[in-house]
Amino acid sequence: SISASNWLRNPFRTIGSSQRYLLECPAGKDPGLCPVAPAPVVRTFRPGPACPDYFRWIHEDLRPWKRSGITREMVESGQRLSHFRLVVLDGKAYVETYRRSFQTRDLFTIWGILQLLQWYPGQIPDLDLMFNCEDVPVVQTRYFGDKGLVPPPVFHYCGDDATHDVVFPDWSFWG
């Protein structure tokens, strides 16, 4: 079983496995526990002839780092704006929590990453990401760019023209 309360007390730990499982949380179970039930995962995938239209927004969100790339220092500079840091290394997820987020938004975001790791084993690259789980974007454009400062790459559920937050799906709506 995966206990949310135990997991939150030990935020920087392995959350991956070399085995593939689907998480199953049936109704009526203790909401703090989610049993891990082995289930075979079979998928077929045929790539389309072109990237979906939303890829242009991904490129737009990443534009501030197009020339410089993203360094570890840039990622770490986003800690004060973030609720947690998620690292994927060799197919395993590691999480470091900086502060509590609203309800379970952080847990559903992490759960979504775990699902990606299980559905696409060996296909998720190594990642080092900072996440903010609030509703209002936090990386204000006015503090970067013209002043020669590179913004911290912070992933967020929303963004706008006045911010550099990198938009990421809010999976807490689906849970």
Mean pLDDT reading: 79
Q: Quick one: overall form?
A: globular
Report the sheet-strand fraction: 15-25%
Class inferred from helices and paired strands: alpha/beta
Q: How would you sum up the major sheet?
A: 5 strands, mixed
Major sheet: order of its strands? Answer: 6-5-7-8-9
Q: Indicate the low-confidence ranges by residue numbers.
A: 1-22
**How helical, in percent, are the residues?**
10-25%
Round the Cα radius of gyration to an integer and report it: 17 Å
Number of helices: 4
Q: How would you spell out the order of helices and strands?
A: EHEEEHHEEHEEE
First-residue to last-residue Cα separation: 18 Å
Domain Glycosyl transferase CAP10: 49-175
Organism: Nymphaea colorata
Protein name: Glycosyl transferase CAP10 domain-containing protein
